[in-house]
Write a structure and sequence with these properties.
The chain is of the alpha/beta class. Strands 1, 2, 3, 4, 8, 13 and 14 form a seven-stranded parallel β-sheet that branches. The radius of gyration is 29 Å and the shape is elongated. Bound molecules: 5'-O-[(L-methionyl)-sulphamoyl]adenosine.
């Protein structure tokens, strides 16, 4: 499938009743990542976000803060703008619904619909939920309470204006049926079709000013303001020039991808398409509803005090790492869980250990042995085929992953290429090739690993623009600010020989988990997890699975007891090219001094775990029989860091 001819992506516009949280940050980062990928594909792209500034929520927040609603908007919008700057969001436009460019379009549409009889006045009786700003019928209520938020509702009778939504029900069902990509993922499409199995009522689109003054005045009745959703949804077209700038509007509308959270599915897949239809406009290609970020297993809420502040995360760990975590961790369409602990574990494993380490090791050797100039491209060899294939297949896959909205899978593919890079580097052991007669071979290994990093950094660029930009500069790649074209990442050998590299400071410095009170235990590789008794496992693994494990020799440099843990020893080990810390449950079998100097066998690519507050970067192997435990060692003299296969 070819790349689209243009890409217009939108986020919901966010209420300005409070400061932004991780949910707002997520949708906006997702839109930014999609926009950046499309730019790298050379597709003309427009990315819109903004703020929803009218309605009860904002009016109430203003009252609570003792300020005018406009002041409430002006004070809060800067928090969103500041966050987007911090998170490197490259939106092309930011719309505020209090801007006249928006208000005029809303009023124009209202007048037109009113003139054409699509909007009519009637008495309305119903149950009204103030926080949700919605009327409900008797049968909607759940135990006399609001079905959305569970709070008390009020009985109201009032004269209002209604939009004839009901007459479009059959058309909408047909449109959804015949356009499988219109609502994604599929289970959300089914949810909307399910909703549409009930008769659709008309939509009350006005609020008497006596009850709510903060909104866009109806052009045909100055006693009323517009229902906030009817106003807000129109931002997607008012921002791109509807009714004012036909050329711009034709260029961008219909939107390619309208991102929303699952909480606002009905407004976007029922109200919005019908509004567009009544106005006579084409439908967006896709409305995509992502899941929610939970905190651990809980819903995020102010009352639980677990609201994650994205500004703090970006300040503490860097915007790129935060962006990476959010993109890698959530499978689009499903809920995902955020904890700072899971964040740090993934950061240390993927970014600090795998990606950052590889980059710094390669570049250090290019400086040490090639004076900071990229060595020439070597002829392909069978031994570097898996490396080339891992990098190129991640690059080839990226477009498909984008179309299918499987960004987490795309991230995992790129990370697999990084791991292959580490495996290749370890296997090739360039530190053993420093003699003059091995120069060509040494250059080849460094080139190949750097070339893998060129592709990887390009693929990760939309997610981590700042850090990947630095890495690309360090690799001697000169490119325009927009970043690498994706097609250039699908060919091996793009690094020019002799290119001047730049020294690279740690891209992703390790986060010392001991320093963080939040990190009590690592999210993965939990210590103390139950194991199957020896010999009882029936599961068989294939060679590839086994090959993913990096077993290496290491020499124990120091060993000491872990305070308060009678079974544990903390070891400092030498892996040839680096030193690490391990925690091992061997204290009942070895005294610390018995271990120093021993050559042991360790799993070198195990995700770091925190055991009793001490980080363990790998695991040693030991044989256990009953109460006896003996360490695995090697038969004869082998240097530290030797591969075990
Ligand atoms: N103003 C309306 C949207 C109008 S669009 C025409 C609104 N605003 S909101 O401030 O409440 O933001 C809602 C959006 O924020 C969700 O649709 C979703 O994109 C994001 N999130 C809010 N909480 C979230 C999570 N816990 N997890 C993920 N995203 C969620 O609704």
């Amino acid at each position: 499938m070819d790349a689209p001819s243009r890409f217009y992506v939108t986020t919901p516009i966010y209420y300005v009743n409070d400061k932004p949280h991780i949910g707002h940050a997520y949708t906006t980062i997702l839109a930014d990542v999609l926009a950046r990928y499309h730019r790298l594909l050379g597709v003309p792209t427009w990315f819109l976000t903004g703020t929803d500034e009218h309605g009860q929520k904002v009016q109430r927040a203003a009252e609570e803060n003792g300020i005018s609603p406009q002041e409430q908007c002006d004070r809060t919008v800067v928090r969103f703008l500041g966050l987007w700057e911090k998170l490197d969001i490259t939106c092309d436009d930011f719309i505020r619904t209090t801007e006249s460019r928006h208000i005029e379009v809303v009023q124009g549409i209202l007048q037109d619909l009113y003139d054409r009889g699509e909007i009519y006045a009637d008495d309305y009786q119903g149950w009204y939920c103030v926080p949700c700003e919605r009327f409900f019928t008797e049968k909607d209520l759940v135990g006399d309470k609001c079905p959305e938020c569970g709070r008390a509702v009020e009985r109201l009778v009032e004269r209002n204006y209604f939009f004839r939504m009901s007459r479009y029900q059959d058309w909408l069902v047909e449109h959804i049926r015949t356009h499988p990509d219109f609502i994604r993922p599929e289970h959300r499409r089914q949810e909307t079709l399910g909703f549409l199995r009930q008769p659709l009522g008309d939509l009350c689109i006005s609020r008497p000013k006596a009850r709510l003054a903060w909104g866009i005045e109806l052009p045909f009745d100055s006693d009323y303001v517009t229902y906030v959703w009817f106003d807000a949804l129109i931002n997607y077209i008012s921002a791109v020039g509807y009714g004012k700038d036909p050329e711009t509007f034709r260029r961008w509308w219909p939107a390619s991808m309208q991102l929303i959270g699952k909480d606002i599915l009905t407004t976007h897949t029922v109200y919005w398409p019908i509004m567009l239809r009544a106005v006579g406009l084409p439908m967006p290609d896709t409305v995509f509803a992502h899941g929610w970020w939970l905190v651990g297993k809980d819903k995020m809420s102010k009352s639980l005090g677990n609201v994650v502040n994205p500004m703090e995360m970006a300040e503490r760990y860097g915007a790129d790492a935060f962006r990476y975590f959010l993109m890698a961790e959530m499978t689009l369409g499903q809920d995902a869980s955020f904890t700072e602990q899971a964040f740090v574990t993934r950061y240390n494993a993927d970014l600090a250990n795998d990606l950052g380490n590889l980059a710094s090791r390669v570049l250090k050797m290019v400086f040490r042995h090639f004076d900071g100039k990229m060595p020439p491209k070597p002829p392909p060899k069978e031994s570097d085929a898996p490396l080339r294939e891992a990098a190129l297949s991640a690059a080839r896959e990226m477009e498909k992953v984008l179309r299918q909205m499987q960004l987490d899978r795309g991230m995992a593919r790129v990370m697999a290429a990084v791991r292959e890079g580490n495996r290749y580097f370890e296997k090739s052991a360039p530190w053993k090739l420093t003699a003059p007669e091995n120069r060509a071979q040494l250059g080849g290994v460094l080139y190949n690993t750097a070339e893998c990093l060129r592709i990887v950094s390009g693929l990760f660029y939309p997610v981590m623009p700042e850090r990947m930009g630095l890495l690309r500069q360090a690799l001697g790649i000169a490119e325009e600010p927009v970043g690498p074209r994706l097609e250039l990442l699908q060919e091996w050998g793009g690094l020019g020989p002799g290119g001047a590299c730049r020294p690279l400071k740690a891209l992703f410095p390790r986060i010392d988990v001991r320093a963080k009170s939040v990190i009590a235990t690592a999210a993965s590789g939990k210590p103390g997890a139950k194991r199957e008794p020896a010999g009882e496992s029936k599961e068989q693994i294939d060679l590839e699975t086994f090959g993913r494990m990096q077993l290496r020799t290491a020499v124990v440099l120091e060993a000491e007891r872990v305070e308060g843990a009678k079974k544990l020893l903390k070891l400092r080990i030498d892996l040839g090219d680096e030193q690490r810390q391990l925690v091992a449950g061997v204290a009942e079998h070895y005294r610390p001094e018995e271990l120093t100097g021993k050559t042991i066998v360790v799993v070198a690519n195990l995700k770091p775990a925190v055991i009793r507050g001490v980080e363990s970067q790998g695991m040693l192997l030991a044989a256990k029989a009953g109460k006896a435990l003996r360490l695995l060692t090697v038969d004869g003299e082998v240097p530290p860091g030797a591969d075990i296969s």
